[in-house]
Amino acid sequence: MAQESLLVSTFYLLVFTAILITYRVVRGPTLPDRIVGLNTITTKVVMIIAIVSVIRKEYYLIDLAIVLLMVNAVGGLILAKYLERRAVHD
């Protein structure tokens, strides 16, 4: 019971901090700031999915979280390569 309440508290903390980071994604000031903010939010969503899967005992959701984490990593690499090429051409 205590472990579940700790997980629920962690869930709410992650949701709250993801909402706070949304400000950085929307306001910037630079494109790299927005990309880092988006990657951070996606990582928090992965943790939220993992916590929900443990609370509800639906462990197949962890597979979904792992796939989302891989997509996040590949997307971050693609955006970094795009920014690198854009900096060379400017």
From TrEMBL:
Keywords assigned by UniProt, alphabetized: Cell membrane, Membrane, Transmembrane, Transmembrane helix, Transport
Protein topology in the membrane: Multi-pass membrane protein
GO molecular function, a single term: sodium:proton antiporter activity
Membrane-crossing segments per the record: 6-23, 35-55, 61-80
Tagged with keyword Cell membrane: yes
Keyword Transmembrane helix: yes
Domain of life: Archaea
InterPro entries, alphabetized: MrpF/PhaF-like
Main location: membrane
Signal peptide: none
Single GO cellular component term: plasma membrane
Localization annotation: Cell membrane
Stored PANTHER family: NA(+)/H(+) ANTIPORTER SUBUNIT F1, NA(+)_H(+) ANTIPORTER SUBUNIT F
Name of the featured protein: Multiple resistance and pH regulation protein F (MrpF / PhaF)
